From TrEMBL:
Superkingdom to which the source organism belongs: Bacteria
Protein name: Dihydroneopterin triphosphate 2'-epimerase
Species: Phytopseudomonas seleniipraecipitans
Family of this protein: Belongs to the DHNA family.
EC code: 5.1.99.7
Cited NCBIfam families: folB_dom, PRK11245.1
UniProt catalytic activity: 7,8-dihydroneopterin 3'-triphosphate = 7,8-dihydromonapterin 3'-triphosphate
GO molecular function terms listed in the Swiss-Prot or TrEMBL record: dihydroneopterin triphosphate 2'-epimerase activity
Originating gene: folX
Domain Dihydroneopterin aldolase/epimerase, chain residue ranges per copy: 11-121
Keywords from the named record: Isomerase
Length: 123
């Protein structure tokens, strides 16, 4: 993850728990499962800090709502695909300079708490 430079803000969305169809086994295809999403987003926040105005800030609520709608409204075979599609939604905002998305699939392996995939993008 890039170092946080002066004038940049880091937004973190932690443990966004959603339900979706994810997997390749029949029970995964037929039944929704929990996924846990963590986001880290860096964007220039000088104007937002100076003006104290939401119009100059990156609206994490708008981003989160888009992610919820997309994840809950679609089916995914692979965690990699789900993670990339979430990253694409975040990176669609021009002010985002760097984003990192981690998606956990709880209990995907018998003796593990979860399995996760992390992808990052930058401009």
């Amino acid at each position: 993850m890039p170092r946080l430079e002066p004038g940049m803000a880091r937004i973190r969305v932690k443990d966004l728990r959603l339900r979706t169809f994810i997997g390749i086994k029949e029970e995964e295809i037929n039944n929704k499962q929990d996924v846990l999403i963590n986001l880290t987003i860096l964007y220039p926040a000088v104007d937002a800090v100076r003006d104290n105005d939401i119009d100059h800030a990156l609206n994490y609520r708008t981003i989160t709502k888009a992610i919820i709608s997309h994840v809950e409204g679609n089916r995914f075979t692979l965690l990699e695909r789900l993670t990339q599609e979430i990253l694409d939604l975040v990176m669609a905002h021009d002010s985002v300079r760097y984003a990192e998305v981690e998606v956990d699939k709880p209990h995907a392996l018998r003796f593990a708490e979860s399995v996760s995939i992390t992808l990052a993008g930058h401009r």
